[in-house]
Amino acid sequence: MQAVKIVTYRFRRLQQNGFFLALPTIAWLFIFFVLPLVIVLVVSFMSRGRGGVALLPFTLQHYERAFGVFFIILRRSIGLAGMTTIVCLLVGYPLAFFISTRRRRLVQQITLFLVILPFWTNFLIRTYAWRILLGEQGTINGLLLSLGLVDEPLTLLNTQFAVLVGLVYGFLPFMVLPIFASVERFNFRYVDAAHDLGANDVRAFLRVVLPLTMPGVLAGCALVFIPSVGAFVTPDLLGGTKGLMIGNLINKQFGGSGNMPLGSALSIVMMAVVMLSLLVYVLANRRDRGA
Amino acid sequence: MATFDVELVDIVKDFESGGNRVRAVDRVSVAIEDGEFFALLGPSGCGKTTTLRLIAGFEQPTSGRILIRGRAMEGIPAYHRPVNTVFQDYALFPHLTVEQNIMFGLQMEGVDKKDARKRALEALEQVRLLGVGKRKPHQLSGGQQQRVALARALVKQPAVLLLDEPLGALDLKLRKNMQYELKALQRDVGITFIYVTHDQEEAITMADRIAVMNEGVMLQVGTPKEIYEHPETHFVADFIGETNFIPGTLLGRDDDGYGRVKLADGTVIRAQLSHALASEALAVTVAIRPERIGIFTPLGPPDESGERHTPLNPPKALGGGIDASGVTVLDAVVADSQYIGTDTRYTLALGGEIELVARLQNVNNKDGASFEVGQRVNVHWGESNTTVLDQ
């Protein structure tokens, strides 16, 4: 009797706090997110069998390799993602600032539209376009040669530089949009106030504008850095072997002659990197809010 | 050099907006003295804030010259001008503490942190706001924020302090208190204040001189008393306080600066001519303040000789010692009466569809200075309380 009462009470409470409404979502997340994640985690500690499948016994060797022979690729991925973030910030901030300070609504809308325009074409196709642009007989080399700026074509494609260009190109909107939103909310009276108190343009920017638009900057950096670390289409098409990133490595492990446990271990390492960068983001944001 | 702190010479400011040229400030010239509390008064959009922003250096004049302490300000950016601003919405930096806000300006001058902090604390003491230095602006009340904004500007010891409707966001009671405090503070520090407001009462209570602006034009500059007693234009008379406007025709000008004006019902009265009245003006307006109009009970019935007498000597008894020789007396009917606490406001119907508003203080009801709607009365005023303006 008592047990029944407790069960009904619990049921009521679940009903009240909306548990049943959230149930489909919870189920979805559990089946398609939590469960696969657990599987990946478990597999990452298993041995490699024939055809790259996972077998017992448990082992740490994949993690050893991830931080051993593959460490150079992990470091390159973080480095390239970091560079991508910095370049996106340096290009994106002025661009976002320009867009949000346009007096005419129409100019603002058009420039914003131009930023989003590339999304209308498939990412893969756009990345292939970069191959044409950067290739040995590509548009850029052709232009440089015909202008006599270089004597022989530059090796642009299949370099880390090409990957950087591709990543910046692909993720720039993710930097511009949050900064745009931040600057849009910024009250320019503060710039007047800073000038009034004796700050020149540079100091007004550094002491007032930048700190107050920091939430947008941080969000933009997170939105660019995280997908950049795991990018695999861009390095695959533009980087060749020199621009190989961790995403490509993981991708390969799940192919025909791959190594699923190694791929799983690399995935977990990559996730840890992303988690760490998110942690930095959260901490920076909290400090920014002035807790 | 004169002792002018700020001089505006023929300042014009045009704004482009959607291909249209809008003149925000139209040929404004004024000289503001050292240590003066100068108010720029006008309705919203009259160009007063733009004028202030031109002095601060946030905007550049289309033409004309601005001098601060005799130095031409052309090409000198806001951050090099010896002026500081208290903004309407205070514009306190939300990411900095109160103390850091006040130190900001000093640090820009290169004052080291320790000195800056010390002076920030002194400034907070000056505006009577201690113990909030470590808080963020949003944790303060509107009145406190206002004081911080003041401290942040004053700590820079500017030649001129510009205040853009600084009390606009405060509630009435706080605003009243701050008016006295600001005035006292200004006397204390001796800095020239240029104070933008749309509140005529604020301007009158605080300012040494007021400039009334409308549509970019500075209509009149003078002491509060001059502006109130001798408005030179219809707009100024209307904007400052309450005024009755009686249309009429100017019949002639007397040598003593008065004119004879025929009202709509044919009555001719004498009234003081404004300096700014156009010399050829015929259709004019007579302005008279409601509190300068006295009311007394009508004349008694005619006696045997057919003459009518007033029961008392009304002008003396009610009007407070107006010189009887220069008193205008007209017949009227009380059309409306409104009790507003300290005063009673009477609407009086005169002949020729003229309506006047009179305000009588509710000093002592035993005096019988209380009138019924529909009652026949006489209204009177001293001629010196009138001004003849352009229509």
Summarize, please.
Chain A is an all-alpha fold and 291 residues long. Chain A has 14 helices and 2 strands.
Kindly describe this structure:
The complex is a heterodimer of chains A (291) and B (391). In chain A, 74% of the residues lie in helices and 3% in strands. With 291 residues, chain A is an all-alpha fold. Chain A has a single domain, classed as MetI-like (MetI-like fold, Orthogonal Bundle). The radius of gyration of chain A is 25 Å and the shape is flat. Chain B is an alpha+beta fold. Chain B has nine helices and 20 strands. In chain B, helix 2 packs parallel to helix 4. The interface between A and B is medium-sized, with 19 and 25 residues.
Descriptive tags:
heterodimer; A: 291 residues; mainly alpha; two-stranded antiparallel sheet; 14 helices; B: 391 residues; alpha+beta; Rossmann fold; 6-stranded mixed sheet
SSE arrangement:
The complex is a heterodimer of chains A (291) and B (391).
Chain A: H1 2-16, H2 19-43, E1 46-48, E2 54-58, H3 61-67, H4 71-100, H5 105-116, H6 123-134, H7 139-146, H8 160-185, H9 189-196, H10 201-212, H11 214-229, H12 233-239, H13 246-253, H14 260-289
Antiparallel strand pairs in A: 1-2
Helix pairs in contact in A: 3-14, 4-8, 4-11, 6-12, 8-11, 8-12, 9-10, 11-14, 13-14
Chain B: E1 4-17, E2 20-33, E3 37-41, H1 48-56, E4 63-68, E5 71-72, E6 83-86, H2 98-109, H3 113-126, H4 142-154, E7 160-164, H5 172-189, E8 192-197, H6 200-206, E9 209-214, E10 217-222, H7 224-229, H8 234-239, E11 244-253, E12 258-263, E13 268-272, E14 283-288, E15 294-296, H9 314-319, E16 327-340, E17 343-349, E18 355-361, E19 376-382, E20 386-390
Strand order of the largest sheet of chain B: 6-7-8-3-9-10
Rg estimate of chain A, integer Å: 25 Å
Oligomer class: heterodimer
What count of structural domains of chain A?
1
Q: Specify the CATH class of chain A.
A: Mainly Alpha
CATH class of the largest domain in chain B: Alpha Beta
The tally of strands of chain A reads 2
Please provide the ordered H/E string of secondary-structure elements of chain A: HHEEHHHHHHHHHHHH
CATH topology of chain A: MetI-like fold
Content of β-strand of chain B? 35-45%
